[in-house]
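Help needed: design a sequence for this.
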């Protein structure tokens, strides 16, 4: 479980990704069954091992609920680890449940409605037994989980690539400006033409967008834990070997006297403000400063974790479309409830806003550069994304396959060796239902983007 310790934050291991994946697979199946109007299966699946909390809070009979209402918070799978849930489901005996429903009444004509006897007939309640075949339920769940493994692994690849590109741009002395190619791709993304749409053929699972953001939050929490460990391992002698801790505060070039229009009194006031600002700075040799810098960095990270970890665990339930509707004034932040969840980029934005400034009102805070610390956090997250992909393919996928072989009627010899979306693309090529050669250049030409 996720816990905060005395001097930092300890995130779950990458193995917890399997628990979250099965949790989201259950929620995806609840969505599908509700969308199909299969109310008995919805009620049985969410009641199995008491997982009613995984259902949508907007659920109603005949209504599946918006995808964002299926909570993407972590640690909601009660039967943990996920292998225990699969084993419990696979060994559950077949059964049946009694289903009662009100039979729809025949539509009456105007003459029949005028007849009080026909117009006041009581509702007819029918009762039948719904068989619960466990192997079929588990097969559906494993099919969804396998598709999640494929799409999540693809997202971790994209996340690692995007983080490394952003990191290279942030660390460059001259930042790159938007090019015409970048603007063209931005228009494509706005229209829904992304790497993800090409993978899924615009047939992504309903909860996939929220899954991607949840994976980013998972990796950010693990990266944050590793950053805390990195700072904790520093010593006064090695404190300034990292880029986000500095020995001295840069001098203010505004006081160099080169501006002849600035009178002597104004320069004197600037120097007085500078002296007052530096009054609380730590002085001494490098060992003393290094010890203060390490303590300040740990204190800053502790405060940062206390504020942002609960929000990252909870996540933002709004869709990307709804989030993009609000445009705050320049220099202003979006007003959100204090207990509202956030996505990973909001936490990175908090660090980025420090720019080249240190931490105010903290002993030794002048040595800490949160902006550079955010760059290091993004670098760690890129490595964590690669590790998460390996966890999915090397740890989670074999366990899903093992459960399929052991508890379902799956015959390995009948498998075609293709993943869900590989099979989807193959079928579209065979049917000719989609032109796979429709290139990005052709799309841009069709959109008339200059």
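Sure. Designed sequence:
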């Amino acid at each position: 479980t996720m816990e905060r310790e005395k001097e930092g934050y300890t995130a779950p291991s990458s193995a917890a990704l399997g628990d979250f994946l099965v949790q989201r697979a259950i929620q995806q199946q609840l969505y599908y069954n509700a969308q199909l109007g299969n109310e008995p299966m919805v009620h049985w699946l969410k009641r199995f091992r008491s997982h009613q909390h995984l259902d949508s809070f907007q659920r109603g009979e005949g209504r599946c609920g918006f995808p964002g209402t299926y909570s993407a918070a972590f640690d909601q799978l009660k039967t943990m680890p996920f292998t225990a849930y699969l084993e419990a489901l696979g060994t559950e005996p077949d059964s049946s449940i009694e289903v009662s429903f009100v039979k729809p009444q025949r539509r009456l004509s105007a003459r029949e409605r005028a007849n009080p006897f026909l117009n006041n007939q009581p509702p007819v309640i029918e009762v039948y037994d719904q068989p619960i075949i466990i192997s079929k339920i588990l097969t559906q769940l494993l099919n969804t989980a396998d598709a999640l493994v494929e799409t999540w692994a693809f997202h971790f690849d994209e996340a690692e690539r995007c983080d490394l590109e952003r990191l290279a741009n942030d660390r460059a002395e001259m930042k790159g400006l938007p090019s015409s190619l970048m603007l063209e791709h931005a228009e494509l993304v706005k229209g829904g033409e992304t790497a993800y749409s090409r993978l899924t053929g615009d047939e992504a699972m309903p909860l996939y967008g929220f899954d991607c953001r949840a994976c980013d939050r998972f990796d950010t929490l693990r990266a944050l834990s590793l950053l805390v460990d990195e700072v904790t391992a520093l010593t006064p002698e090695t404190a300034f070997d990292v880029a986000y801790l500095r020995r001295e505060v840069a001098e203010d070039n505004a006081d160099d006297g080169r501006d002849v229009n600035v009178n002597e009194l104004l320069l004197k006031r600037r120097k007085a403000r500078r002296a007052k600002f530096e009054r609380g700075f730590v002085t001494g040799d490098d060992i003393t400063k290094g010890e203060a810098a390490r303590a300040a960095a740990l204190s800053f990270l502790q405060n940062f974790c206390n504020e942002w970890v609960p929000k990252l665990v909870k996540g933002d339930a709004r869709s990307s479309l709804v989030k993009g509707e609000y445009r705050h004034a320049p220099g202003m932040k979006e007003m959100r409830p204090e207990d509202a969840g956030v996505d990973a980029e909001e936490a990175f934005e908090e660090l980025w806003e420090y720019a080249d400034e240190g931490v105010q009102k903290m002993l030794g805070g002048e040595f800490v550069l949160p902006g550079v610390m955010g760059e290091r956090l993004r670098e760690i997250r890129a490595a964590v994304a690669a590790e998460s992909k390996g966890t999915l393919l090397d740890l989670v996928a074999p366990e899903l396959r093992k459960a399929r072989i052991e508890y379902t009627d799956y015959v390995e010899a009948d498998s075609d060796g293709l993943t869900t979306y590989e099979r989807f693309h193959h079928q579209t090529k065979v049917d000719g239902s989609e032109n796979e050669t429709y290139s990005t250049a052709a799309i841009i030409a069709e959109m008339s983007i200059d």
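DSSP finds 16 helices and four strands in the chain.
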